[in-house]
Design brief:
0% strand, mainly alpha
């Protein structure tokens, strides 16, 4: 068990490098990884979400009742800033329908668990980050399909009910199961949690490998434009969260959490939804795959910068 824990610590620490290396291999030598099928993506994401559920406790939701204003600001910003940025960037760069759908799906998804890790590394408000991730994830079945439909209704056909059911199946049920198991078998799950990074990172890497290898030709032929849009989307999300935190005169810790939570998305969910909701637009999975790689790199860099920034205490 201790060997697995050490491997898990190593994998968690160097997640960005591992994801980048696998993504590069899948992009330039797709045949080496095309044994990982895109049909596995939903199941792999369910593993990640189940792992998230195993780490959740009722106390994680306490921040919602103790500091509802902070959580409300974070949730509202998450579902306003990133979708609007996605739509504006997609239109500004003239993305085709498939890529536009993929970018908007990234924007309308909730924050991912990576944001909680990066907030911790940045010395930010971890409780707020976990609270925002949890609440936004629970809101996702309703909010994500609604906003996606609102922004894409004139471009592509959006099946709201299909998207709602996909999020329930892939996100809510696995998280709920993990939460229940943690509630009743806490001692056992606490031991398992130590090796969760190994399992979660393996699943995330396999998702990236599956999507990138299956779409390597499309990614290469789309040129630099989709990379530029994805990178700008992520960076402007960080900047928007930081600016909002400073505008509202939030503490540096809250500002860090808000910035990272808004900028880092559950891109695995976006990729899954793109594959299931837009089966005729395979290229829609590309933005989510690129975002999965990029936001772990940028998040690690930003966390390092934020860790050395204390701002002015409010």
């Amino acid at each position: 068990m201790k060997v697995l824990e050490k491997i898990s610590d190593f994998v968690g620490k160097y997640m960005a490098v591992i994801v980048l290396a696998i993504a590069a291999l899948a992009l330039f030598v797709p045949t080496s990884l095309n044994w990982i099928k895109t049909s596995w993506v939903n199941y792999l994401l369910m593993v990640v979400m189940f792992g998230m559920g195993l780490t959740l406790k009722l106390s994680d939701f306490a921040v919602v009742f103790k500091r509802p204003k902070d959580v409300l600001i974070g949730c509202a910003a998450q579902f306003i800033v990133m979708p609007v940025l996605a739509f504006l960037l997609g239109k500004a760069f003239g993305l085709e329908a498939g890529l536009l759908a993929g970018v908007i799906l990234v924007g309308t998804c909730p924050g991912g668990t990576s944001s909680n890790v990066m907030t911790f590394l940045s010395k930010g408000d971890v409780a707020l980050s976990v609270g925002m991730t949890s609440v936004n994830t629970l809101l996702a079945p309703f909010v994500t399909p609604a906003i996606t439909y609102l922004l894409l209704r004139t471009t592509v056909t959006v099946d709201i009910m299909s998207m709602f059911l996909s999020i329930i199946k892939v996100v809510i049920l696995p998280i709920g199961l993990g939460f229940i198991i943690n509630k009743f078998f806490g001692e056992f799950t606490q031991k398992c949690v130590k090796v969760l990074p190994l399992i979660s990172v393996t699943a995330i890497v396999m998702i990236v490998a599956a999507v990138v290898s299956a779409n390597s030709e499309k990614i290469l032929t789309t040129g630099a434009i989709v990379f530029v849009v994805v990178i700008l989307h992520n960076l402007l999300g960080y900047a928007g969260g930081f600016g909002l935190g400073r505008l509202l005169k939030l503490s540096p810790e809250k500002t860090k959490a808000l910035s990272i939570e808004i900028g880092m998305q559950n891109s695995g969910l976006a990729t899954s939804l793109a594959a299931t909701s837009f089966p005729d637009l395979a290229i829609a999975t590309v933005p989510g795959a690129i975002f999965s790689v990029w936001h772990n790199i940028s998040g690690a860099i930003l966390a390092n910068i934020y860790a050395n920034w204390n701002g002015e205490k409010k």
